[in-house]
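S1.2 Input.
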Amino acid sequence: MSDAVQEVRFDDLDGLRALITEEFGPWGPTLEVTQAMIDGFAEITLDRQWIHVDVERARRESPFGGTIAHGFLVLSLLPALRPQSAWRLGGYGSAVNYGANSLRFSSPVPAGSSVHARGRLVAVDGKDTGTLVTTETAIHVVGQDRPAMVYQGLTLYRPARR
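S1.3 Output.
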């Protein structure tokens, strides 16, 4: 991939729609999901289910052979796993999380495994308040074909306030 990244204005609907694709882009950075991360997430969310935090019991009883990350922990790693792209949005004043169309946890993320993500542009819709961009991101355990998580998220890009 070229080092040059194409900037497309957030309000260039035709330019953005030309980037919609069925194919996922290249992988972003890799991150290890440690037991310490899982334990910290369990404390913050008060979700201390044994399959996440009880290493010995998970080794004995879990169908996965050990502890696994919470699905929402995997989702929360999206900013750190930001997939690579040949383009980026520019010219907007703010970007607001607008929600999700879908979220699926397809396979476990074992403690100590590394994950990475790749994404694609799915839809672009002009709104009175800005441009609504739908992206799809798949997070995989490195070396696994089946994604651990697939997320279709929506972001509203708004013009700068005057």
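S1.4 Remarks. The chain has one domain: 6-158.
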